[in-house]
From TrEMBL:
An example Gene Ontology molecular-function term: zinc ion binding
Source domain of life: Bacteria
Domain Zinc finger DksA/TraR C4-type: 82-115
Organism: Williamsia herbipolensis
Listed transmembrane segments: none
UniProtKB keywords: Metal-binding, Zinc, Zinc-finger
Gene3D superfamilies assigned to the protein according to its UniProt record, in alphabetical order: DksA, coiled-coil domain
Protein name: TraR/DksA family transcriptional regulator
SUPFAM superfamilies referenced in this protein's UniProt entry, alphabetically: DnaK suppressor protein DksA, alpha-hairpin domain, Glucocorticoid receptor-like (DNA-binding domain)
Zinc finger (dksA C4-type): 87-111
Length: 120
C-alpha cells in the first residue's frame, strides 16, 4: 500500500477515535454530574438504564477507543520504520485489501484467525 495513502487512512482513523473519546468523556462527565444530583434515583428510573450502567458503558467505550488510538499510533510507527504491511506474528505480507479494511492491523488474516481460535 502506498505510504501516503496508509498515513492518511491512519490519521483519519486516529482523528475519529480521538473525537469519540472526547465525546464519551463529555457524556461521562454529565452522567457523573447527574449521579451527584441528590434527586437522581439511580436504581428506580422507569425511563431506562441506571446511571451506573451508563457510566460503565461509557468507560468501556473510552477504553476501547483509547486502545484503538494506541493501535493506530503503533501502525504509524511501523509505517515510519518501514515495517508497515508486514505481519507481526509470521513476518509475511498483510494483504492490501486487509490493510484497506483495517489500516491499523498488525497481523495477516491467517495469524488473526489463529489468534481468534486460540482465545476460544
Amino acid at each position: 500500500m502506498d505510504p501516503d495513502i496508509a498515513r492518511g487512512r491512519l490519521a483519519a482513523e486516529r482523528a475519529d477515535a480521538s473525537a469519540l473519546i472526547g465525546s464519551m468523556r463529555a457524556r461521562l462527565s454529565a452522567v457523573v454530574d447527574a449521579a451527584v444530583d441528590e434527586h437522581a434515583d439511580d436504581e428506580h428510573d422507569p425511563e431506562g438504564s441506571t446511571l451506573a450502567f451508563e457510566r460503565g458503558q461509557l468507560v468501556a467505550q473510552i477504553e476501547r477507543s483509547t486502545e484503538r488510538v494506541a493501535e493506530v499510533d503503533a501502525a504509524l510507527a511501523r509505517l515510519g520504520d518501514g515495517t508497515y504491511g508486514r505481519c507481526l506474528d509470521c513476518g509475511g505480507d498483510i494483504a492490501e485489501v486487509r490493510l484497506e479494511a483495517l489500516p491499523a492491523t498488525g497481523v495477516c488474516i491467517t495469524c488473526a484467525s489463529r489468534r481468534h481460535r486460540s482465545r476460544w
